[in-house]
Amino acid sequence: MITLITFSIVIIVQIYFYFFFFGKFYFSNPIEYPDQNLDVSVVICAKNEEENLKVHLPKIAEQQYSKFEIVLVDDGSSDDSLQVMQQFKNKYTSNHLSIQIITIPKENSHGKKAALSKGILAAKNEYLVLTDADCKPISKDWLNEITSNFNHEQTIILGYGAYRKIKKSFLNKIVRFETLLTAIQYFSYAKTGKAYMGVGRNIAYKKDEFIKAGGFKDHLKIISGDDDLFINQTATKNNTAICFTKNSFTVSEPETNFSKWIRQKRRHITTSGHYKKIHKLLLGIFYISQLLFWVLSISMLILNIFPLITIIFILIRFIVWYIAIFRSAKKLDEKDLIRFSPIYEISIIFIQLYIFIRNTISSPKHW
């Protein structure tokens, strides 16, 4: 009976999150605001990103925006990233596009936060749009759409950063499903006035927000978190908006090696321990409910514990869960993930458990 009661509570928690909480996002429609033509600086940091810069920088320069600036920071690269930046500047500087390059010698390189801070402070404009060197906008209207959300109250804009689709790759599906689930969460939290993170691949905020927060000083020693910890620190109910119109997305190069992806996720997850207490509580409850759902479902079916009730509860949960995944995947152009999404979900849940255990034993020290 205790097992059944526990399973019932888990199902209620899952329904609450997937229908009522996450529904704030997936039942909403993207808002298309008119273009504002604000004075905008796009800030990009790069460390040994020579090939990515060659491919992706032109996509930034080709934005259909009246006038803007690109700030490029070379963070002690040992490849030809700096030369690529200089060639890009010579080719694309025009009346509507100014480009400045900031170089940080290798011996003075102190991580992405320090490099990004230099780029932000050097930016000539008040409105900042941040993305990564391995990232490109999917549309020439990206800059218009992400900045159109700014107003006198909304000074932080959270966008969606997708990963490139690779056919016949299970790892790619896992990477993208985890990205989808993360986006569902941070968009939903923002919609309920509890924004806790964004992704550095596609985020915008006013320079004044950065200065008021003292930049990244409160978490400078943490190897990651230039995006999520900054948002966790500065976002409020009134100053944060989400942007998920189709032309506002960016696409990044996904990790194609499982071990490297695990190392990447281990670094990223180190920031969650520094979130606000309410965020840690809610995120923890949600993850535990996910884990217990699968563990109890499988155990109760194998051991034949209240089989009919168990099956009914599982079906109810999956109906609600499927509505959330289906609607969210359509909104974020990840429809190919829907078909085998239960497999991706259970894989991610146990991968996250493994990462948590590994990080508890030995936390990553380097970016």
Question: Could you explain how this protein is built, in words?
Answer:
The protein is α/β, with parallel strands linked by helices and 367 residues long. The chain has 2 domains: 2-24 and 277-361, no CATH class; 29-255, Spore Coat Polysaccharide Biosynthesis Protein SpsA, Chain A. Helix content is 50%, strand content 13%. The chain is built from 13 helices and 10 strands. It has helices spanning 2-21, 23-26, 50-61, 81-92, 112-122, 142-147, 170-191, 207-212, 228-234, 258-269, 277-302, 307-331, 341-361; strands at residues 40-46, 68-75, 97-104, 127-132, 135-137, 156-158, 161-163, 203-206, 240-242, 250-252. The strands form 2 sheets. It has a 7-stranded mixed β-sheet with strand order 3-2-1-4-8-6-9, sandwiched between helices. A 3-stranded mixed β-sheet has the order 5-10-7. Helix 3 runs parallel beside helix 4 and helix 7 (170-191) crosses helix 13 (341-361). 40% of the residues are buried. The model has no long low-confidence stretch (mean pLDDT 93).
Can you identify the CATH class of the largest domain?
A: Alpha Beta
The number of strands is 10
Helix % is 40-55%
Order of helices and strands: HHEHEHEHEEHEEHEHHEEHHHH
- By CATH, the architecture of the largest domain is named Alpha-Beta Complex
Q: Which value, in Å, is the CA radius of gyration? A: 21 Å
Roughly what is the average pLDDT, rounded to an integer?
93
CATH homologous superfamily identity of the largest domain: Spore Coat Polysaccharide Biosynthesis Protein SpsA, Chain A
SS class: alpha/beta
What is the name of the CATH topology of the largest domain? Spore Coat Polysaccharide Biosynthesis Protein SpsA, Chain A
Give the end-to-end Cα distance, rounded to a whole number of Å: 47 Å
Number of domains: 2
